[in-house]
Amino acid sequence: MRISIFGTGYVGLVTGACLAESGNQVVCVDVDASKVVRLTQGILPIYEPGLEDIVHRNQLSGTLRFTTDASEAIAHGDVIFIAVGTPPDEDGSADMRHVLQVASAIGAELSRYAVVVNKSTVPVGTAERVRSVIQADLLQRGVSTEFDVVSNPEFLKEGDAVKDCMRPDRIVIGSMSARAIEIIKKLYSPFNRNHERIVLMDERSAELTKYAANAMLATKISFMNEMSNIAEYVGADIEMVRLGIGSDARIGFSFIYPGVGYGGSCFPKDVQALEKTARQYGYIPQILQAVEAVNSAQKMKMFELINRHYHGKIRGKTFAVWGLSFKPNTDDMREAPSRSLMEALWKQGAVVQVFDPEAASETGKHYGDRSDLTVCSDQQAALKGADALILMTEWKCFWSPDLKMLAETLHDKVIFDGRNIYDPQAIERAGIAYYGIGRGRSLLDLRSD
Ligand SMILES: NC(=O)c1ccc[n+]([C@@H]2O[C@H](COP(=O)([O-])OP(=O)(O)OC[C@H]3O[C@@H](n4cnc5c(N)ncnc54)[C@H](O)[C@@H]3O)[C@@H](O)[C@H]2O)c1
Q1: What CA–CA distance (Å, rounded) separates 437 from 382?
Q2: Span 60-64, average pLDDT
Q3: What is the number of other CB atoms lying within 10 angstroms of the CB of residue 361?
Q4: Three-state secondary structure call for residue 436
Q5: 261-292 pLDDT, tens per residue?
């Protein structure tokens, strides 16, 4: 099929590459001209395992092209995907500007039947809005070109995006048009081979499904972080509790890791946007409010532990920070807890030496050059001259450090483990003080200090 994709971010680029790989002719369009130039040269704007190979292969064979020309893309596509950003507006609701701009561009150019697919995460009712924008533009042009709008939310996980796209858990298609459903089913048939993954529903349910999925996952994280805080107060170890509850098949082990709070481009904005939508319709979503409040507090957790350990005297201290991306296997630092931590440390006059396997250039984009930030090229370099180590993202390379070397290197011999990846006893045996999340003794010990 001939496919056009608006937006070459995590979703658009991965979708475009995977659809090209499965035999379609794909044109990806973006308003960011420099991104398009780099993509045309084979330089990817994001880090995503396995993506580069697929992009290069399909560029070479001519099945994947990049352009800034929306008209060319609209003329090309039998199916036109909208995969542009829906960032939070000032009041927390989803900013629909980019989605509606694309709808308008489609209405201004469309000259034959096409299926317009909303892949961006959008509030309930957006498929109707997109349809009416296109319809209004067609009317203005005095043409009666047929089209359908389908809601097809994306569930890929950054860091696993290519795998998720090639082998999705489910493919949600929200549409009442038999014609559009048939086309989209055919497009996805290579990804739907070994069992039926397509879940057909109406547009509004499809739109809400995406928010419900992210809100559920965010709720699991905040719930576990709340438990970890209770564990600290009562002197229990949340890691034991995690094993105890995860073994119940009704609960399961996934997404019940305590930590430094969720970040990234999806959970924070989607929980907020769903809350806004609910309020607009007259419902007060109490769980969503609590999920967000717990998360905001949790993002300051490491800073609080550090501040208490140093009795508020952290000015002039040098902290090694391992891991900056909001989770491993991505370079994405949007809403990353590492940012809340660094900004709080800087405010108190501390200095950070950071290392992340992939997020160095993102760090530069967010913070530029500043005297209290050194971006290191390896994890050992970040430790040089540091007083303490803070683990913020559980990349595999951080899991088994040389404890003897850490004890010799860190001036204050203390580790703050934001992901509970280290064995507290082993760290303490090495003569290093240990702080984790919800591991029983930290708050009690601090209170008796
Ligand atoms: N990142 C994820 O893990 C993920 C997962 C599922 C769903 N989503 C949703 O998918 C959507 C896209 O997310 P993303 O992370 O890929 O965003 P992104 O910010 O990485 O990329 C969006 C791209 O759209 C481009 N763009 C903006 N306006 C445009 C226009 N008028 N025409 C063409 N291009 C335009 C931007 O320049 C940018 O390159 C969002 O709604 C997001 O919530 C994201």
Answers
A1: 23
A2: 97
A3: 12
A4: coil
A5: 999 989 999 999 999 999 999 999 999 999 99
Amino acid identity at 253: F
pTM: 0.94
User: 375 phi and psi, to 5 degrees?
Assistant: -90, 115
Based on C-alpha coordinates, what's the Rg of the chain?
24
- What six digits make up the tokens of 377? 């090229």
95 closest CA partner among 113, 70, 121, 71: 121
Token pair listed for 191? 């990804």
The answer to whether 421 and 402 have CB atoms below 8 angstroms apart is no
- Choose the residue to mutate in 84, 89, 160, 331 for probing ligand 1, maximizing ligand atoms within 8 Å of C-beta: 84
Runs of H (alpha helix) within 22-143: 33-40, 51-61, 70-76, 97-109, 126-141
Cα(162)–Cα(160) distance, integer angstroms: 6
- Separation between Cα atoms, residue 320 and residue 318, nearest integer Å: 7
User: What residues form DSSP beta bridges with 416?
Assistant: 390, 435
8 C-alpha vs ligand 1 centroid, how far in Å? 7
Residue 355: the pLDDT is 98
Q: Is the pLDDT of residue 449 over 80?
A: no
CB atoms within 10 A of CB 255: 15
**Ligand 1 center from residue 204 Cα (angstroms):** 20
Residue 299 sits at the vertex; the CA angle it makes with 296 and 300, to the nearest 5 degrees, is 100
The contacts of residue 189 (CB under 8 Å, 6+ apart) are none
Active site amino acids: 266
- Sign of the four-CA dihedral 327, 328, 332, 338: positive
Q: How confident is the model at residue 445 (pLDDT cuts 50, 70, 90)?
A: low
| Contact in structure between 180 and 206 (CB atoms under 8 Å) | no
pLDDT of residue 240: 95
Which amino acid, 142? G
